[in-house]
Design goal:
signal; DUF2490 domain-containing protein; DUF2490; Porin; single chain
C-alpha cells in the first residue's frame, strides 16, 4: 500500500513539474551493433531516433559509426564519424556532420564498474533553410557506473543497473552548455544481445535561459564477437 501511494505521489509531482514549466516526456531510442574482430580491435555502428517536440513523432535522427581499440583491460580509444539531422514539418531543419576522438578509462571496485570517458568533437553544420554553414568544437566528460545484480559482472543472463552524469563544454558562451543525468537498468540476454531502459534528464544551458528535456530511453545492442572476449558492452543513451 505504501509503495502504491509513493508511486502515485511521484507521478503527481512529476506531472505538476511538467505542467508548471511547459515540459513534457520525449522519446529516445537507439539500435547498435558492435563487431569484435579480435581482442583488441572492434567496429561500432548505431542508429538513433528521438521525439523531441512530441513523444509520438520522431523529429531527430542520427547514424554513426567508427572503430576502436582495447589498449588493455582498462583503457580504450575510439575514432568515430556521424550524421545528425533535426526535422520540422517533415523537412530537415538542421543537419550536422561530426567527427570525434574518444578515450575511456575503466576501473572496477567489487561489482561496481566506473567508466571515465573523454570525447573531443569537431562539428560541421548546414542549415538547409538559410543555406548557412558553420562549425564548432565540443568537449565531453562522462562518469558512468554499471552494477550487475545477479552476477559478478555483466555477462549472459545478467540484470544490471547503471547511472551516469555527462558534461558538455564548448568555446562559445556559456562554456558548459549541456548536462545529462541518466538512471536505468537492463538485461543482458546473451553475449550477443542486450537491452536497456531508463530515464534521461538533459539541461541545455543558454546565455539568457535554460531548457530542460526529459527522455524515456530504450536501447538495443547486438554484438558479433569473433574474439570471445570481454567485457560485454552495456547499451546506454550514449551519444548526441
Amino acid at each position: 500500500m505504501k509503495k502504491n501511494l509513493l508511486a502515485l505521489l511521484f507521478a503527481l509531482i512529476t506531472a505538476n513539474i511538467f505542467a508548471q514549466n511547459d515540459e513534457h516526456l520525449s522519446g529516445f531510442s537507439a539500435l547498435s551493433l558492435t563487431y569484435k574482430f579480435n581482442k583488441k580491435w572492434y567496429a561500432y555502428g548505431e542508429l538513433q531516433s528521438r521525439s523531441l517536440a512530441d513523444f509520438e513523432t520522431v523529429d531527430y535522427y542520427e547514424v554513426k559509426g567508427g572503430t576502436g581499440i582495447n589498449i588493455n583491460s582498462s583503457n580504450q580509444a575510439f575514432l568515430g564519424i556521424g550524421r545528425y539531422a533535426n526535422y520540422k514539418d517533415k523537412s530537415i531543419s538542421n543537419e550536422e556532420l561530426r567527427f570525434w576522438l574518444q578515450y575511456t578509462y575503466n576501473k572496477s571496485f567489487g561489482r561496481v564498474k566506473f567508466e571515465n570517458r573523454i570525447r573531443v568533437e569537431k562539428r560541421l553544420f548546414h542549415n538547409p533553410i538559410t543555406d548557412v554553414d558553420s562549425n564548432t568544437e565540443r568537449y565531453r566528460y562522462r562518469l558512468n557506473l554499471i552494477v550487475p545484480i545477479n552476477n559478478k559482472k555483466v555477462d549472459a543472463n545478467t540484470f544490471f543497473v547503471n547511472a551516469y552524469d555527462e558534461l558538455f563544454l564548448g568555446p562559445e558562451n556559456p562554456t558548459i552548455n549541456k548536462n545529462r543525468i541518466y538512471a536505468g537498468g537492463g538485461y543482458q540476454v546473451s553475449k550477443s544481445f542486450g537491452v536497456s531502459l531508463g530515464y534521461l534528464f538533459q539541461r541545455d544551458f543558454g546565455v539568457k535561459s535554460n531548457a530542460n528535456l526529459h527522455f524515456a530511453f530504450c536501447g538495443l545492442n547486438f554484438t558479433i564477437d569473433r574474439s570471445n572476449s570481454t567485457p560485454i558492452q552495456v547499451p546506454t543513451p550514449d551519444h548526441d
